[in-house]
Amino acid sequence: MPRYFGHQFVHRGREDCLSLGFLSAMGSSARWVLWTQCVYFTALENVALRVTMRESSLKVVQGDVVVLPCSFFTSSPLSRLNVIWTLAPFSSPEIPMQVFYHNLLAGIPWSADIVLNDTRVTDAGIYRCMVNNPPEAADPGIGELELSILAPPSLPLCQWDGDIDMGGSVTLSCSVVEGVPTPEIRWDKLNPEEITLPINMEGDLSGSVQIVNVTSQTSGLYRCSATNLLGTANCYVNLSIYTTPDSSSGMLQGVLLTLSMSLVLLALLVLVLWLHRTGQDGGWREGKEEECYNEIRVERKLQTRKELEAGELKQKAAAPQNQSDMLWSVKKAKQTEKAHQWWNKECRSGKPT
């Protein structure tokens, strides 16, 4: 029973101390040994329960295994030993929770260590080891240890909000759920060249960038980076600014369109006038030709009449006539022939007089 070694000798020390008066006849060396034993075991009996933590703080990466050390010392038997571990999370330290309880600790004497497997960020906080071994009083009987769980940044969430028209204002926001130590958030514009943007932190895990009076140069790919000792996580936003057409270029397009329509209308007007004039000339020529044809008929009638008159003249020539009648007939025939020649010339030219 080595675990109870100290407790067994306490009672023997008491008996030896009580028998010192009866051993006064013994030698001085024997009396000195017995007196030392008496003082030692009396002091050991009066020592209260003590709890010590070999480490005051521990850091471990998320997912690893960690041992939380707790040692205690007691002079009483361990038959009524109780060990309780509690956790006060960093997120809510005012609400501690019990994580371990044992009323008969087996294994290594004077040790109340516990092991945490597959650690998570939620396991971080203040751990308290409380040891109770009645009837012995604790002094203080409680040990504390701070456990930190290191974790890389979670994948950030990128968002944008605002007016993407020319001259508007756009806000880029980025947030992460977890990361220990607290990750540093950074915004960069990647193209056409990489530019770091000033950021407004909104708490420990969120940051935003506000861009005012946006232009076409604002368009591009933006990256949010969350970085700590364990790594970096990124998210991206592709921002496209809507550019309205230039007023001067629009005015120029309107002028060109107006000129084009004017030229088309002018061409149509010239075509209509030409067709109208062509139709009039064709109608006049048709009328003129008909008139010439009618004149030819008249001319033929005149020729027939002339032939008749010539026959009559021949008959009269056979008979004696006066000189004046003959001259008039010849003159009339010449005038008729000239008029006929002039009219034929006018019909061939096709021009009105």
TrEMBL record:
InterPro entries: Ig-like_dom, Ig-like_dom_sf, Ig-like_fold, Ig_sub, Ig_sub2, IGSF11. PANTHER family: IMMUNOGLOBULIN SUPERFAMILY MEMBER 11, IMMUNOGLOBULIN SUPERFAMILY MEMBER 11-LIKE. Pfam families: Ig_3. Keywords: Membrane, Transmembrane, Transmembrane helix. It comes from Etheostoma spectabile. The keyword Flavoprotein does not apply. This is Ig-like domain-containing protein. Residues 49-148, 153-240 form the Ig-like domain. It comes from the Eukaryota. The chain crosses the membrane at residues 251-275.
